[in-house]
What does this fold into?
Amino acid sequence: MSKANLYQQRPADGIQAESPLHHAELDKLANRKVANAGVTLREKKFLGHLTLRGDAHDPAFAGGVHKALGLELPVALGLVAKGDTSLQWLGPDEWLLIVPGGEEFAVEQRLREALGEDLHYSVINVSGGQTLLELEGAKVREVLMKSTGYDVHPSNFPVGKAVGTNFAKSQLVIRHTGEHTWELVVRRSFSDYFWLWLQDACAEYGLQVAA
It folds into this structure.
């Protein structure tokens, strides 16, 4: 693979960045305390999102990814994590890598150095095009059952599984990251729609918004 030009996409210090839901009155709602809330929602802002493509059956590619990230390539519908870094299977030759905000440029550099110039692969920074919503609480599964036709029963959707599926009348990625914790990877252009949907879907269970 020919050497690619790398660009630092994160705004420089001193420039105010805005998350996809910066205007959704999250701060106002975050100040409202909800007794016995069944769902707590937070936007995990400004994380680094990278899509990685390559041949999972090529030991050089898999080994290079492990060298750069300390993570093994997950199998189908799988999600692996190390600290605040996660790698999720999207397809037979595609993965979503999420890293702490501000580290995406350095992580991309490490990946390209570890994979070299002879392998066929791609690493693309998509941080500006999507965001991550975290849902936590005893009633999250009920909210998901109202929102998607995908079976979220524990026997079918254990912790560590992630799928792209229909949600409401659109699509997103659902990730099960803890017993009562789920994440939604949403496209920036649909973030308002999903935010309004979740407000309505969570209303009967009590929604607490965390800043």
Observations:
- The chain has a mean pLDDT of 91.
